[in-house]
Design a protein that fits this description.
Elements (H helix, E strand, L loop, with lengths): L8 H13 L4 H17 L5 H15 L13
Length: about 80
């Protein structure tokens, strides 16, 4: 369910620019930033590039590229 949220014009303008670079909608860009922010708060010891690599890997697995790592396998 979508919910309307008021955000600053400055945030929208920054999202507009980034959304063009990454081929996302403005709302999609703000949602991405919110998701990254939530992940960083939940995992403060992990650097941002590491979190981004994990998200990229998850999408690659969903797209059928590669295989997921299963802990304990191959030992």
């Amino acid at each position: 369910m979508a919910t309307a949220v008021k955000v600053s014009d400055e945030l929208v303008e920054k999202a507009r620019i980034k959304s063009k670079v990454y081929k996302r909608s403005i709302a999609g860009q703000i949602e991405y930033w919110a998701k990254i922010g939530q992940l960083i708060e939940d995992n403060p010891d992990l650097p941002l590039p590491f979190i981004q690599n994990i998200l990229e890997g998850k999408e690659q697995i969903k797209a059928g590229q590669g295989t997921p790592y299963v802990f304990g396998e191959g030992e």
